[in-house]
Design a protein that fits this description.
This protein is mainly alpha-helical. The protein is 71% helix and 3% strand.
């Protein structure tokens, strides 16, 4: 399981994080262009609000799994910092499994909602009639990927190891 973690999950989530970062940069450029255009011509980029919504959803949900892999996702270590490493790892494994149950249920619901949105042709009315299903699909994908990563990470903890990257962000460190 440790080998699978290092060879599959770390590189795969890194690529999604790179896509997330590129999208974030593209959003920054689009918003800068919007500000320049408004200041110079008084006009606006048509549909930018809808594009920015989708881009923001993609940026956030494609980066969630990488944050978990690197150990930079939100966590509270008040109890586990006071335990022996082997006990702390098993407790982290149990906590991740509980989170997987919730995220798994959430992923199933999000996937169903994305499929319904696609089949039903759901769109958001604004300056453009913008389809909603791409945003729903990225939320479902990102949440599902996070679920799989947390499941794999919990299994690594149960082997008695600490997943590589998990110790990168300890209390008081700057990452």
């Amino acid at each position: 399981m440790v080998t699978l973690w290092n060879r599959v999950f770390r590189p795969a989530t890194k690529w999604f994080a790179i896509v997330s970062a590129v999208l974030c940069g593209a959003l920054a450029l689009l918003l800068t262009a919007e500000v320049v255009m408004r200041a110079s011509t008084g006009g606006s980029i048509r549909g930018l609000f809808e594009i920015a919504e989708l881009g923001l959803v993609m940026t956030v949900f494609l980066g969630l799994a990488q944050a978990e892999v690197n150990g930079t996702h939100v966590r509270v270590t008040l109890l586990t910092d006071r335990l022996r490493p082997a006990v702390a790892n098993r407790l982290r494994g149990v906590a991740l499994l509980l989170a997987c149950l919730f995220l798994g249920w959430m992923s199933i619901e999000l996937i169903e909602r994305a499929i319904d949105s696609f089949i039903g042709g759901e769109y958001r009315t604004g300056l453009l009639n913008f389809p909603v299903w791409p945003s729903r699909a990225f939320v479902a994908f990102g949440t599902s990927l996070l679920t799989v990563v947390m499941l794999a990470k919990s299994l690594v903890y149960f082997t008695g190891h600490t997943p590589s990257g998990a110790e990168a962000a300890t209390e008081g460190s700057t990452v």
